[in-house]
Amino acid sequence: MRDSRWQEYRFAYLLIIPSLVLLSGIILYPILDNFVISLYKYDLTKPWFRPFVALGNYQDLIHNPEFWASVGRAAYFTAASVSLEVILGLAIALFLNMQFPGRGILKTLVILPWAVPTVVSAIMWKWIFDANYGALNGLLLQLGVINQYQAWLTRPITAMNLIVAADVWHQTPFVVFIFLAALTTIPDALYEAARVDGAGALRSFQRITLPLLRPAFLIVFVVRTMEAFRVFDLIYVMTGGGPANATQVVTYYTYVSTFSYLHLGDGAAQSFLVSAFILVLSVAYIKLLGSQVEY
Amino acid sequence: MLASVVLVAFIIGPYLWLIISSISSTSELTSVPPHWIPTQPTLAKFQQLITPDITGLSETAQMFKFAMLNSAIVSVTVTVITLVVGALSAYAFARLNFPGRSQILMGIIATRMLPAISTMISLYVVLKKLNLLDTRAGLVALYLSFTLPFAIWILSGFFQTIPKELEEAARIDGTSHLGALFRVVLPLSAPGLVSAGIFIFMAAWDEFFFPLIFTSTYAAKPVPVAISEFAGRHAIDYAAMAAGGVVASIPPVLLAFIFQRYIITGLTSGGVKG
Questions:
Q1: How many angstroms away from the CA of A197 is the closest CA of chain B?
Q2: B112–A226: do the CB atoms touch at under 8 Å?
Q3: What is the pTM of this model?
């Protein structure tokens, strides 16, 4: 018996060794190395001068208003896009959960925006919002909403919100599928019982649908927040962080400090602070929504 | 009925405009307001993307086919390696008992919270030493850093749903652990493997940040970076950019439509059960 247990251990380690070797090389080592870098003032523009500053880079960041402004922009982007995606995704899922002609085709089509590569979606929206020839300008002009073409992506207020719109288009299908799958597991009998008890549609939505969707909400919030807080591709392609830094979210700020200004120590410290934010947010969601999940 | 129309317009409208743009002439696209339906639709831009060496095209348009080739080679290689290596580990995490099992698994899954930029500086130095900058092999190694943890996570979820009794029956009949993995667990989790494979391929096809930093020429530059260069020019050839976008989305969109059922199972069962 003892023998077979050792055999199982040995076999298990044999199976995981290839993954562990690979992941040590491409994740574990770079992370540790990056942490060491974050403890030095390390500018590639002055490679000969590399003093050890311990947590100095982190302290500098905490007092750096530009960094906090970029965190604020990422927070705004995340809050706006995730809440819109949840509301819209839930509405579409509830709609597709009903019986009506053409439902099958709609359910198939809904996956399209999610399947389109992120960068393609980014150039598509950039083209639609184009100041000189964009479809949005053309459409609004023809509808009489505007009387001349607008520079949507080079004005601070509209730029960020239109990037949110692009993200909502791209990511809502994911939310729809999570909610739709959860909705199909709710037994019809529950709704019938509620109807017999005289509950209206709104009440059974509040008392049956929403509570049973709690695990789906948790998944959607955690996954989408993690991704949205790290948004990069859309920003890089659509505005490059502009106009006047209005869309410079925290990953873009880190990218610029690291690869344009070559402040490697600062960049490394920033990347760890971003991970810490994401970790805190995920734990908060799990505490908030996960407490009563029975799955 | 109205809701259906609005929904279809929201989903398809923007993408349809990309397709229309790709078959329009520049003069129709740059008129104010644009011609919503091109009077002279043309496939010229698509032809330019595949025919070699037409003079007068931007470098991006000329090299686009090489970007497609790079993306295809890198994405397929990453998918195969991830599935093989990932499935072996996932089986151990899902089915075998060994010291450190849950801690190692948690550690692997937790790497998904790290932003890619936190590994980039060191990886850049390492890949430079190994002469892997601007190579497809280098990209494969980089992409494994996000596909492998994902695959281990999703596949161990799938393997746990295979009834243990089936495997035990095979073990009693004298099959080894490895035999049980190949003859019982893997065939029964074929849908899980397909769905994981599609996610991995799509994630690799989509990846932008790593190749933005790690590639500089069309020896390795993949489609997303090529597409972003269309948009970065001063005199943008809108129709060519749109055609590039349409071509770049064909592989993932086809996969999504054909394997929709697997994708949904993946999203909702193994993939997100955490």
A1: 30
A2: yes
A3: 0.92
